[in-house]
Amino acid sequence: MAKKIATLAKGRKCKHFGCKHILSIYNAEAFCNTHSGDSPQKKRPQASKSR
Known about the structure:
Blueprint lengths: L39 H4 L8
């Protein structure tokens, strides 16, 4: 028997002021990836500028 995947309502918007991203039905967070604190872009280490 296949395991049922939980989904949320369609059309939910990111709660960040001014953001118009529509959240995935599989994203249980209130914010889109851009505005969540766990964004991969924010975790990526900065490249060193020294030569």
